[in-house]
Amino acid sequence: MTILTSELEKHFTMELVSLLRAAGDLAWARGWNLYLVGGAVRDLFLARPNLDLDLVLEGDAIALARKLAENRGGEVVAHPRFGTAKFRQQRISLDLATARSESYARPGALPVVSPGTIGEDLLRRDFSVNALAVHLDPIHFGALLDPYGGRDDLERGLIRVLHEKSFSDDPTRILRALRYEQRLGFHLEQNTEQLMRRDAAVMDEVSGERLWHELELILKEECPERVLSRADELGVLQNIHPSLRGNGWVRNRFEQARKAAKPSPALYLALLAYRLSEEENEDLLARLRIRGEIAKVMCQTIKLKQVASDLTTPRLAPSAIYHLVQRYSPESILATALASDSRLVRQRLKLYLTELRHIRPALSGDDLQSMGISPGKKLGQVLCALLDARLDGKVQTREQEEDLARRLLG
Ligand code: ATP
After folding, report:
1. Is 379 exposed, middle or buried (0-12, 13-18, 19+ CB in 10 A)?
2. Ligand 1 atom 7 nearest Cα
3. Cα of 174 from ligand 1 centre, angstroms
4. Which phi and psi angles does 187 have, rounded to 5°?
5. Suppose 219 and one of 185, 265, 279, 307 were both cysteines; which one would form an S-S bond, judging by CB atoms 3.0 to 4.6 Å apart?
6. Which of 44, 52, 104, 125 gets mutated to test ligand 1 (max ligand atoms within 8 A of its CB)?
7. Test site for ligand 1: of 56, 126, 148, 166, most ligand atoms within 8 A of the Cβ
8. In the predicted model, is pLDDT for residue 55 greater than 90?
9. 187-188 and 158-159 as β-strands: parallel, antiparallel, unpaired?
10. Using CA atoms, how far apart are residues 385 and 379, in angstroms rounded to an integer?
11. In this predicted model, what pLDDT tens digit does every residue of 351-373 receive, in sequence order?
12. Which residue owns the Cα nearest ligand 1 atom 5?
């Protein structure tokens, strides 16, 4: 039996190990077994930091979380519908869940869940490397539970499903597999890859919300383009939406995006949207049920691309650039600046983002009123003219602005 006590002590802080022991003891006193499971165990072997710890209990997870908070301090948010609880104590966050078994009525549907053993709980998991558990009870503390050869797969760098129906039960696992593969620098195990190719079409059955959740997780990875590229190569991307691509263009632009700014899912999606028609984009938004700010940025990127040809006019004044793009969000402007084939468009959009958008006249509306202009249309026009003069370098000081304002008022 593999005992991981010293690995746990090396990998986690003393406080955390002591809390895990306390939780294991409290569970044991009630006749329940507690385990550390999933990503935290995988990352323990890979020596990668992981602060989201998942605990599985053969017993009442909410009751245990509350008892732990009572004994050791901390806060609990319980989700009675799911039998889960989040325990928080300063920087520590533990997700506690009651062990469960799952069955799928049809491909892509949500599973039917019932309480189960740790063995059943591991069997419902996505990949062998995520189906590892460590005993936390006082008798077996640190003992590894590895029913599917997860540790061997970690050593060989393989992502392997636990059974033949894994992807058809839950096609979102296809995206998860590619995300882990690229994040960890692993490979799909041969049979897993065949099953993926076989079942990729079942992605059609999955709700937009679930696909979007997985896509968003991909876009939060360090190098999302690698996952998209692999998904394209395996025919997976087309099953999410026929307009999606993970080609060289996408790889290049995503890399550029990271050099230019702190990337966000919105910026990456704006880059993906750049090459779509308005109809394709609408269709993609509807399929993945993307709404709100991100949807807005994607739509704006397509609109901005359409007006971007105006930005190629020779000798365009900075104020003209400003008024052409000012109504678009910074992400859609940055996406267009990264994506456009025209050097002039790229330069002018960067000029807007780095300089023009921050420029303001020195005089405010109040200043103009104290010069005798009453509030109304005229005041607005003068303010606008002052801004344009600033943008175009025609005025540089407050005095020059005052002169200009007087001249405009005749
Ligand atoms: P990450 O580092 O990406 O957060 P994680 O392994 O902690 O990795 P979560 O998405 O937090 O991933 O999921 C926790 C665990 O739940 C996983 O390790 C896996 O065992 C299981 N899991 C999550 N989603 C699925 C799924 N769709 N099918 C089966 N098991 C899943």
Report:
1. middle
2. 39
3. 12
4. -130, 155
5. 265
6. 125
7. 126
8. yes
9. parallel
10. 10
11. 999 999 999 999 988 988 888 88
12. 39
Which amino acid is residue 389, in one-letter code? A
Hey, whose CA ends up nearest to atom 1 of ligand 1?
39
pLDDT over 80 (residue 18): yes
Is the pLDDT confidence value at 198 over 90? Answer: yes
Residue 180 Cα to ligand 1 middle (Å): 10
What is the distance between the alpha carbons of residues 289 and 297, in angstroms, rounded to a whole number? 14
Choice from 96, 113, 130, 132 to test ligand 1 binding pocket (greatest atom count within 8 A of CB): 130
pLDDT tens digit sequence for 99-129: 999 888 887 788 888 889 999 999 999 999 9
Residue 319 Cα to ligand 1 midpoint, Å, equals 50
Q: What is the pLDDT of residue 206?
A: 92
DSSP letter, residue 110: P
Two structure tokens written together for 328: 């678009």
The 52-58 sheet, strands edge to edge: 75-79, 84-89, 92-98, 52-58, 33-37, 133-135, 144-145
Cα(221)–Cα(185) distance, rounded to whole angstroms? 13
Q: What are the φ and ψ backbone dihedral angles of 316, each rounded to 5 degrees?
A: -80, 130
Q: CA 97, CA 95: separation in Å to the nearest integer?
A: 7
Task: Compute the mean pLDDT over every residue in the chain, rounded to the nearest whole number.
Answer: 95
The DSSP 8-state label assigned to residue 108 in this structure reads: T
CA atoms of 185 and 157, how far apart (whole Å): 7
Q: pLDDT at position 52, please?
A: 83
pLDDT given for residue 51 in this prediction = 82
The pTM of this model reads 0.91
Residues with CB under 6 A from ligand 1: 38-39, 52, 54, 125-126, 130, 170, 172-173, 176
- The full DSSP string for 124-147 is TSSBGGG--EEE-STTTTTBEE-T
What is the per-residue pLDDT across 253-277, written as a single tens digit (0 to 9) for each?
A: 999 999 998 999 999 999 999 999 9
Gap from CA of 391 to ligand 1 centroid (Å): 51
For 409, phi then psi, to 5°, come to -85, 0
Answer for the pair 283, 295: CB distance below 8 angstroms, yes or no: no
